[in-house]
Structure formats: structure tokens, C-alpha cells
């Protein structure tokens, strides 16, 4: 009898050892719903987006919110694509009967329906040198149009492609465009350019302030503009046929009292048939030598030199027959 009982116990133990109890709380038996995913993913977009939410777990139900709150079983069920026309954050969770719910997935969308307003570099302000202005727009693919005359820019205005050079006070207006988006607001930037000015400028249209110690005619221009000083070593163009040459050392002079060091700048040219050598002297010393310009007829050339402070006499001198012309004499502070 005892043997029979022992055998039964052994058989029962063997049977139960081969049977695995399906415990729903066993980690191996817990089933979890996959996390929802978004298409397109969260990010920055230009124009409205149509967002779909999916879950790789068959039969799962997706719930979502668009107001920043956590989704629950009572939240809106996802059935159709969500139209995103402004910047929002979508949160979603997935459920399935007898399964553990998914974790919450979040996708944030930044939506631009208008092109960003252009910006300027450097910014508007007052400058003492010419500036190169860059116009920038943060909207990818945008085309920038601009004006320099104060008018409102439009799609037919000049298109920005490279920095704009401005050497005088200018107001720049710019607007950006991109297909599918509303055009940007107009950006306006005002630049005040205060370039250094010369201490003295003479266009030689009035020679009364200069002393003429020559036999030459200095004020009979052979250029169209009367603002050029003509140095005619034949005593005037009207008498050119008499071949009366100028004397060496013909001089046009003027005294200046400089309170600081200065820079003299002068622009000259000559006629093709002229052999005139022209000099600029300070106190009798040559500081600018234009030489014989036979290779550069009718081409304005600028030369310059520095003169110390104090009282000085500036002279313009020719030493040979011929005709030359001076456009302008400028005196600048050397600082």
C-alpha cells in the first residue's frame, strides 16, 4: 500500500513538472503596444502639412491630442490625417485589449505660411566709409527683391544676388518671395554715409584767387566743360596757329596756410598732340611730376602727395609748348 502511494506521488510530481502554468503576470507573457509614429516627422515646414499617425501593433487604437495635454483613452481617436496649418505639438498613445498601452509619442511642428522678413548686414546706421550691404532671409529658397529709391519692392523689382555697394546716404527696402507662401513684410534700412570731405576743392572755374605769372592762357578750356583748367602753351586755342610758345617756368600760384599735415590730390590729362610737361610744386619744390603724357592723351590721371602744416605756396607749372588740362585740385586732412 505504501508503495502504491509513493508511486502515485512520484507520477503526480512528474506530470506537474512538465506542465507550465500560463501566468499573465509573467514578464514573458506581457504584451505591450508599440509606440505610435508620425509622418511626416516633427520639424520645421513651409506651408501646411497633412500628418498621419500609425502603430505597428495590429488592431491597436490610437488616441491623440493637439493642445499639449497628455492623451488618454477618452482622447480623440485617430482615423484621418490631421491638417497642420500652424505650429502645434501632437501627442499620441496606442491601446489594445488585454495589452499594455504604448508610451506617449510626441511630434512638434513649426509651420511657416509667410516668408520671413529680410534682414540687413551691416544694420542701418551712420557710417564714415562706403558700405557693402548684404540682405538675408531665413526662409530657405526665398527670392529677395529690393529698391534703393524709397519705393515699395515688388516681384518685379531688382533681385538681390550679391552685396550692394553704397557710397552715399541710401534707404534700402527689401521683400522676400517663395512659391506657395505669402510674401514677407517689407524690411527697411536707412544708411547715412558721411564720407570724409576735402578741406579745399578747386575746379578752376574761377582763377581770380590764383596768381598767373605766365605768358600762357590758363582758362580757355578745350574740353566741353568749363570747369576744367586748360593750360595752353600757345597763348590760347584761338591763336594756336601763330605758334607763340610759352616760356619755361610759366606758373599759376596760390598760397595756403595749413593747420595740420595735408594731402594734395590733382587730376590731369593732355591732348594727343601735346608735349607739355606739367609740375605741381610746393614752395618751389616739385612734389608731383606729370611728365610728358604722350602715352595717355585724354585720360584723367590722379596723383597725390603729402604737405606739412604751415604756410605754403602751391604752383602749377608748364615747361614746354603744348596743351594739358586740370580737372580738380583737392586738399585733404592727412589724418
Describe the structure.
- A hairpin with a 2-residue loop joins strand 22 and strand 23.
- The protein has three domains: 77 residues, Immunoglobulin-like, CATH 2.60.40.10; 75 residues; 134 residues, Jelly Rolls.
- The chain has 335 residues and is mostly beta strands.
- It has a five-stranded mixed beta sheet with strand order 2-8-7-4-5, with no helix packed on it.
- The chain is built from one helix and 26 strands.
- The termini are far apart.
Spell out the key features of this protein.
single chain, Jelly Rolls, 3 domains, 5-stranded mixed beta sheet, 26 strands, 5% helix
Short synopsis of the structure:
This protein has 335 residues and is mainly beta. It has one helix at 2-17; strands at 37-39, 43-46, 49-54, 61-65, 76-77, 82-84, 88-95, 105-112, 119-121, 125-127, 131-136, 143-147, 158-159, 164-166, 170-177, 187-193, 200-202, 211-212, 229-232, 250-258, 262-270, 277-282, 285-292, 301-307, 310-318, 323-333. A 5-stranded mixed β-sheet has the order 2-8-7-4-5, with no helix packed on it. The chain has a 5-stranded mixed β-sheet with strand order 10-16-15-12-13, with no helix packed on it.
N- and C-termini, Cα separation: 127 Å
Question: Can you summarize the main beta sheet?
Answer: 5 strands, mixed
Task: Fill in the CATH topology of the largest domain.
Answer: Jelly Rolls
Unreliable residue runs: 218-228, 230-249
How big is the Rg? 44 Å
The CATH architecture of the largest domain can be named as: Sandwich
What share of residues are in beta strands? 35-45%
Amino acid at each position: 500500500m505504501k508503495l502504491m502511494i509513493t508511486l502515485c506521488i512520484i507520477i503526480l510530481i512528474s506530470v506537474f513538472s512538465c506542465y507550465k502554468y500560463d501566468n499573465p503576470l509573467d514578464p514573458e507573457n506581457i504584451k505591450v503596444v508599440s509606440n505610435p509614429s508620425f509622418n511626416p516627422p516633427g520639424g520645421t515646414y513651409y506651408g501646411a502639412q497633412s500628418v498621419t499617425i500609425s502603430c505597428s501593433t495590429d488592431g491597436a487604437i490610437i488616441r491623440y491630442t493637439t493642445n499639449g495635454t497628455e492623451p488618454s483613452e477618452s482622447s480623440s481617436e485617430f482615423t484621418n490625417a490631421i491638417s497642420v496649418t500652424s505650429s502645434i505639438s501632437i501627442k499620441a498613445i496606442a491601446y489594445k485589449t488585454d495589452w499594455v498601452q504604448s508610451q506617449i509619442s510626441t511630434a512638434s511642428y513649426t509651420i511657416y505660411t509667410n516668408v520671413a522678413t529680410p534682414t540687413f548686414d551691416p544694420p542701418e546706421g551712420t557710417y564714415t566709409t562706403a558700405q557693402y550691404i548684404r540682405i538675408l532671409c531665413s526662409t530657405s529658397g526665398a527670392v529677395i527683391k529690393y529698391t534703393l529709391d524709397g519705393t515699395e519692392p515688388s516681384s518685379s523689382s531688382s533681385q538681390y544676388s550679391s552685396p550692394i555697394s553704397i557710397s552715399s546716404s541710401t534707404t534700402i527696402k527689401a521683400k522676400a518671395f517663395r512659391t506657395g507662401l505669402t510674401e514677407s513684410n517689407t524690411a527697411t534700412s536707412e544708411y547715412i554715409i558721411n564720407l570724409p570731405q576735402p578741406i579745399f576743392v578747386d575746379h578752376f572755374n574761377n582763377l581770380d584767387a590764383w596768381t598767373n605769372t605766365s605768358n600762357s592762357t590758363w582758362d580757355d578750356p578745350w574740353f566741353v566743360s568749363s570747369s576744367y583748367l586748360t593750360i595752353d602753351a600757345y597763348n590760347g586755342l584761338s591763336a594756336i596757329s601763330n605758334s607763340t610758345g610759352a616760356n619755361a617756368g610759366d606758373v599759376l600760384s596760390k598760397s595756403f596756410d595749413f593747420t595740420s599735415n595735408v594731402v594734395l590730390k590733382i587730376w590731369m590729362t593732355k591732348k594727343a598732340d601735346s608735349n607739355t610737361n606739367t609740375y605741381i610744386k610746393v614752395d618751389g619744390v616739385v612734389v608731383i611730376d606729370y611728365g610728358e603724357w604722350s602715352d595717355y592723351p585724354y585720360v584723367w590721371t590722379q596723383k597725390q602727395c603729402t604737405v606739412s602744416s604751415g604756410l605754403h605756396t602751391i604752383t602749377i607749372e608748364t615747361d614746354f609748348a603744348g596743351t594739358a588740362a586740370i580737372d580738380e585740385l583737392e586738399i585733404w586732412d592727412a589724418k
